[in-house]
Design brief:
The protein is α+β, with helices and mostly antiparallel strands. The protein is built from 6 helices and 25 strands.
Length: about 350
């Protein structure tokens, strides 16, 4: 093996690292650095952590301590195959001590460094909690129903969708996704929302599950940094008709299955699929609900007709046999009377019969 002279110390060496012997290279080499005291900024209300100019949600204080150390730990840019071991120890609810060992390869040499630091927990109020406590909102979401009053069940479903949407957006980093205030009125719900973006997502989520439409109306609130600031009112309208409603349209009796801009349902006369446009929906008339159905006795069954005992008049009547009709022995048939006519409930609605 060839020997050479270190130009710095004059000693003989077989290996040069950055032009000097191993001893000279590592004499003043610093593998890692860590401040002796580090501050971890936490929100006293929600537990979020402030780092790199923004607040982020964290699971627990131990995670905050570890991430704070990682953010402040500097490792030499030439280090390779790095391993870091952090051992935090709580001293008080507001102070931690930690030992940090860093192991890495430098120029093919495996070296380590052991550091210690003190982490001080500074509790304050994050932007989100400050805004919530101050009643901040960027928009108002008004939940109503078209030509009717929304039911308690519908409003409860809307609130569930709101909570799920807010949680999902918060998980993605939108810390303005919150509800400042919820007001219940006889017409529906008014929700004061922290961000316009969350308002749009909530409306779309409600429509996806329940149908309906929404519109946006901006109103000038003030100015900030020379720019006009607007608040948005979201007018969320639940459908005029809901699944299970029975309507009269085009002289046909239809069980509503879903409604947005168009309505889909099942024709009570022959169980065929039915679709109506917005213009046709405007002319529709509400005539009942599948909850009004009662059980009837099947007297006889032919290829295309059924004879049943009318549970209202106790007379036998003939009705058209629906496609796919099947009945087991001793089973009763759910029927509903609409405008003096008797109809069988379509097979897909039998499970909803009350």
């Amino acid at each position: 093996m060839t020997s050479t002279i270190c130009p710095k110390c004059g000693k003989g060496t077989t290996i040069l690292l950055s032009g000097v012997c191993r001893e000279c290279f590592f004499q003043n080499f610093v593998l890692a650095q860590l401040p002796q005291v580090i501050q971890a900024r936490l929100c006293a209300t929600c537990g979020a952590r402030f780092a790199r100019g923004r607040w982020t949600d964290e699971d627990d204080i131990e995670t905050v301590v570890l991430k704070t150390i990682e953010d402040n730990l500097s490792i030499h840019e030439a280090a390779e195959d790095i391993e870091v071991c952090i051992a935090p120890r709580q001293l008080t609810p507001h102070m931690y001590k930690a030992e940090v060992e860093v192991v890495a390869a430098i120029q093919g040499e495996r070296i380590n460094a052991v550091l210690s630091t003190e982490i001080r927990i500074i509790r304050e109020s994050c932007e989100m909690c400050s805004r919530m406590s101050g009643g901040y909102f960027e928009g108002i979401l008004q939940i109503r129903a078209t030509d009717r009053t929304p039911t308690d069940d519908e409003l409860a479903t809307c609130l569930r969708i709101v909570d799920m949407t807010i949680d999902r957006m918060r998980a993605k980093g939108d810390r303005l996704a919150f509800i400042t205030e919820t007001i219940r009125s006889k017409e529906g719900l008014d929700l004061y929302i922290g961000s316009v973006n969350s308002g749009r997502h909530i409306c779309k989520a409600i429509i996806e599950e329940m149908g309906g439409t929404f519109t946006e109306s901006p109103s000038l609130f003030g100015q900030k940094d020379g720019r006009e600031v607007y608040r948005i009112t979201f007018s969320m309208r639940l459908p005029r008709f809901t699944p299970g409603d029975i309507i009269s349209i085009r002289n046909r009796k239809i069980v509503v299955k879903h409604m947005e801009k168009k309505l889909t349902g099942t024709d009570l006369a022959d169980s065929s699929r039915f679709i109506a446009t917005e213009d046709e929906i405007a002319l529709a008339k509400h005539v009942g609900n599948i909850r009004d159905a009662v059980n009837a006795v099947l007297v006889s069954e032919e290829e295309h007709e059924l004879m049943i005992l009318d549970p209202f008049t106790f007379r036998t009547v003939n009705v058209k046999k629906p496609s796919g009709f099947a009945i087991t022995e001793d089973e009763e048939i759910p029927v509903i009377r609409i405008e003096d006519a008797l109809f069988l409930l379509p097979p897909e609605w039998k499970k909803n019969d009350n």
